[in-house]
Specification:
two-stranded antiparallel ribbon; about 10% strand; Helicase, Ruva Protein, domain 3; four-stranded parallel beta sheet; 2 domains; homodimer; about 40% helix; alpha/beta
Chain lengths: ~200, ~200
Amino acid sequence: MDLPSTTLAQAVEALASLPGVGRRTALRMALHLLKEPPDEVARMAESIHRLATDIHYCSLCHCVSDGDLCPICSSPKRVQNTICVVENVKDVMAVENTQQYRGLYHVLGGVISPIEGVGIRDLNIGTLLNRVQQGIPAPVEEVILALPTTMEGDTTNYYLNKQLKPLGVKVSVIACGVPLGDNLEYADEITLGRSIVNRIPFV
Amino acid sequence: MDLPSTTLAQAVEALASLPGVGRRTALRMALHLLKEPPDEVARMAESIHRLATDIHYCSLCHCVSDGDLCPICSSPKRVQNTICVVENVKDVMAVENTQQYRGLYHVLGGVISPIEGVGIRDLNIGTLLNRVQQGIPAPVEEVILALPTTMEGDTTNYYLNKQLKPLGVKVSVIACGVPLGDNLEYADEITLGRSIVNRIPFV
């Protein structure tokens, strides 16, 4: 597909670098933008550009933020003695959307993965241990590990637990089991197995 | 979903304005961009910005172009006496991809649609008639109407034919029928009906 304009071709190439966007979709997007008012397109480019220049991370939990502290870390309404450890910013939002958690977060920025070359030093583990040790922003009672239920997540959970336990903090991990509304026959055997092993008293 | 950063929220909003992109996908894109090298994100924003500022249209066929004439209009290899009329730039590429057409194009920029408020004056019809009348860039022998096979496309075809015929040019329209590789039972009755009415001698 030879495009008749270099400007268009470059925009298509740029858009096609987005996840889940192929060249055909990128072309559709670019042609859509051509029909939009130029100042709106410029504004869009500007907000993408700001992702490269203006983004800040919370100095406490490493979530994206406007200022030094993110809205969650700076909110007095949040329970200060509980830290939920997640892999990335998306997971903060996923947990927030459940409306079941009122504590603070800590974004690791990944999970330990020798295959992808992600080691302990690549993750925000030092600052987590520091928060627990120094009691920042308040003495920590519980750390909830909410990492992916994958091999890498399990490995990271194991390592974090080993580091956190000696600091005298309660360490818990999110429950793994059959999703709500699922028939048992559709659950894979490992998930079903875990849900049996981790059964809880019927209230 | 409350985002912890205004910069991120604005980027998500901008990306969600793209066709086929919802807020969830836009968030995935924005978080992907956060992980990319900043100069790459800046380059992407730049190419989108250029869509607003740097795009040119061919003075002859109204296709997007780098200079005054698009690569097709300025190519000596193209058949100069045939013009294929299409709705938009995407359709130029669609016809080009068939590798069955070696003539020139004329991009209308839409089709007549009273419902969407698109009238004759909103389309590049005047310049088309001018090209045929004045023989630009060469005396025109045939105009091929390759507009959408919709009510609006049909209306536009009808109007263009009425305007073009008196100029002594051959006017043809692309064939409408059963797509290649389709079972007849899957074709809708109007398409199948047209393919019977427009049957051609078996060679």
